[in-house]
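FORM 7B: Structural annotation worksheet

SECTION A. Query
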Amino acid sequence: LSGNIFRSPLTTIFSLETIDISQNRFQISFSLSPFFNHSRLKIFYGSSNQEIYEDEHRDDVRQQGTFLLHQPLFQLTDLKLGSSQRNDNIDGVFPKFLYHQHDLVQVDISNIKLKGAGFPSWLLINNTNLRGLTLLNCSLSGSFPLPVQNWPTLYFLDASNNDLSGKIPRWIWNLPELLILDLSKNNLSGSLPSGFITSRMIEVYLSRNQLEGTITKNEYPSYSLSVLDLSHNHLSGKPLNSLSGFDFSNNNFSSEIPPQISYKDGMQFLNLSNNKLKGSIPSSFSRLLQIESLDLSQNNLSGTIPSELSSLTFLGSFSVAYNNLSGKCPQVAQFATFNNSSYQGNPYLCCTSPLPPSGPSLMPPASHDGDRDDDDGGSFIDMESFYASSGVSFVMVLLTIASVLYINPYWRRVWFYYVRITITSCYYFVVDHLPVPVKYKVLELRV
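SECTION B. Predicted structure
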């Protein structure tokens, strides 16, 4: 569906309580002025449409007799005006009707350019029952001035990909119901307070800011935390060990990898790349049976790659590039699928990989016999399985042919006819081209 919602019949149906016109090609007024007379309206979903435009200062709107109200008659509970792509038709202001809303529970105004606008702390002050607020990619700037008060219901806050600066207010970590917090891709600075994660938090995203300070493993009482993303900051200290999604890349961690990190059930990805970690790779990583991605590249790790890691059957992405590892690369199970880019930058690491090594190897060349043994043991094709599957396929083909001939008399006669013709042709070929005694040059065909 398409068209300007300003001219839609929906603007004259004043009994509507819910309007959902999302995922269409409508042109929607950002001020919602066409619906100011809908006193019963509670829910408005208009996200992912063709265009969201501002009309609060347009003359043609002021001239419409239907929309003379400066304040809406409705009190919304749910509002979604977010766009799936960046919308640059709005410039610098939140819609004025939001200042008159006091019952909002869910608000999503994502991907709408509000350049110059600050974080709308007044929205939280006016709506004490607000549970979810999404302001993703709205060009918000300035400090992050959360009002000093307790919001007992707020469980989701996403103000990522903006230009917010300053420190993260300390009392945000004391919100009793906050489960998901995303402030990534801003210019927030300062240090994280000790024990900043509450016991109820599930996901925290603070990547690509200017955060600094030291992280210690004993500051986090949360047992429900599954994802903590602090990548691309200036943090140091010791990584945590209680997460199922772990991204601390591009920081300044310089300790050894704590082996306790492998005792977290259900961990699916671990990214410690671009740090200063030292020591060896814990063999206890073999306990991470659900892990799918493991990135330890660009650190100062030494020692060998534990052979126990070959038991990680779900591992689809692996990198230990640019460390100081030595020994032989695993070439069994899923490790046979990783190319040389997973190991490059380790001059003392010997890898038999489908790709050529990234630099000169300091290990002595292997003998031809050893290469032959490695090829047999690390082949991509299991020959026993290959022979077994070939035999089963051959038997199935024979059984299929026999079944068809048994069921269909016509094809049975045709089959035996061609068999007889073939035998006769072979006989005469032999008689004509080979020296055969005359007494054998008689063929009697009996039907």
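SECTION C. Observations
The chain has three domains: 2-278, 279-380, 387-440. The mean pLDDT is 77.

SECTION D. Sign-off
Analyst initials: ____
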